[in-house]
What does this fold into?
Amino acid sequence: MKRLLLCICIFLSLIPLFLWGQSKVNKQSRGQKVAGYISLLTADSIKYWDYESGRWGVALQKQGFEYMEYDEGRHREYLTLTCMGFLTSFSIDERKKLKVFRYNSVVPTTLYRIGDILKLTEDTLIVKWEDSKENRLLIKSKDQSSPLKPALSLYNRRYPEMGVSKDSLWEMAYSLYCTYREKKACPDTMLLVVKLKLNEEGKAVMAKYERTPPDSATYADFYNVFLSFVKSLPFTPERDIETKETFESSIILPFSFFAKESWAEIFRRELRQKRQAISKEKSTAK
It folds into this structure.
């Protein structure tokens, strides 16, 4: 009986030691999992992930666990000007829960975003952020050597501008419209919105109607010529006046014409013509 009690006591005394060992093994296992996730996310240094669209991306750095968003030109990207005053870091646990934090010397660390990693491989990352309805697909960037550039200042950003005045544009567009109207080869009333994509030199590389005109089949020739005319217009590209960098951009131009001009339109047109005539006389006199 004494031996039995002794065995029971020894067994009970070993239980805490067994549980401690098991807990230590579990912690080591979780730690190895997290280390593996961090290695895939950061390539043990810094790794650039591009969103599927190719226009934005995220850089994850192992040192300091930095989380840095960037644009298509590899400039640091911030959601608002206020965000520029914060540093961002990330963490991940064994459940693949990804958390992003913001902090600076004044404001303590606060949770900025939280999401679940649905897939993580060497070249693919899929995240479901809690503040987004869609899963975000990121692909390992082909460029893993170019460092990020400082963020562009919104105050230095200048948007595309037409190389012709609004009056000149109206006169050219209206002249084209009248040419086809005399042939009865265009609609009496036209409300068009043209979307243009400009390259870094300001040249239109794509032009399309935001909404297909309902009579596009009837007046196909006119709509094609008018679209080519808009695409040929000169523009200065979107640019940063400090760094002198230029950027791709998209703009929208609305046009509207009517078969019968209102008295106000006739007055405006005649007034423009008088101003142009006076301007020519002054330039000739000089």
About this structure: The two ends are 126 Å apart (CA to CA).
